Amino acid sequence: MTDPNQSGPHDSDRYAILLYDNDCGFCSRAMQWLHDHNALGHTNAMAWRILDPQRLPVTPERLDREIILVQGDEIHGGAAAFAVVLANARLPWRLAGRCLGAPVVRHLAAYIYRKVAANRHRMPGGTAACEIPTRPTASPRPDNA
To answer: Based on the structure, what is the number of domains in the chain?
Structure first.
């Protein structure tokens, strides 16, 4: 994986950088699996929590919910990020990425990604730290309103 002290997510348009949540054991294991199986291609996986928050391309709240791929001026999140990463890797990953990016599959992949992300604390390697913070709900209205 990438040494975070060498570069940041905006330093170069030459490289794609995949930002992931290193507080989450499931996410860290998933990135390590992708790295070990050469599925990242020329993409560098980088833990976003160890970066300067002022240099992040999206909000920490978004990074809590999904992986983010920064590729030049383009930003992709969630299943779309995986599709682009895989599509730019070697075979057989390239085929998987193209399949995930296909119009018919894209929506299903996004749905599955959201379900897995919402339950990542229940996945193998997941811990309580993997749980995605829930958004606060509106305060209940007083009875006399």
So the answer is: 1
